[in-house]
Amino acid sequence: MIRNVIGSVLALVGATAAVWSPFREWYDGRLGRDYRIQDLFGGISQNEGPLVTSILLPMAFAALVTLVGLLLRSRLLVTLAGVIVLGFTILWMVRQGQAAGSLTVGGDGAGLGLGVALAAGGGVVLLLAAALMSGRHELRRRHEEPYDEEPPGHAPAEDWGPYGQDPNRPGPYRDADTESYRQPYDEERRPGPGQPGPEPEAPARHSRFRRH
Fold it and tell me: Which label site among 32, 62, 136, 148 has the fewest CB atoms less than 10 Å from its CB?
């Protein structure tokens, strides 16, 4: 339970960082939302497209997959979200490195910016969240595990058969002579499994002569 809570919180943090990253600088002061998705496959250009076709789209899709994974308690979906974020971030770095010749990191706004760090960190946090979550199969296995009805150290209960205990059965009584509990008369005379029953009593014979 605690692992699921921590994993869910980390997954939300990672998804938030991934969605926020396109609104921060990615390279040389250029925002991530200014990069088109087609630039990641055809080469980085200076053309800007609408927001829905920018790099924000895969990040938002990864956040949606994360929410569905948390609702379903699916580690696979959360892992998929982390792979999507890291995959598009690494693909952008490859294309940007090809366009600029090399990737640099500068403190004056040049080179890699905060947006790339947010995207990469969000993807790593999503993968870490998926590793911490126990998932649905683990919860189902815990619910299906058998448990001991009798606590350890106690004698097993008397077997009453498939129909349970007889509520009309008389209980044991205490013998005053021996100071011990004995079963009722019917229980003492009742034969056990595989034992012959008591012999029937012979009928009393009546005398042919009547006493006067």
Answer: 148
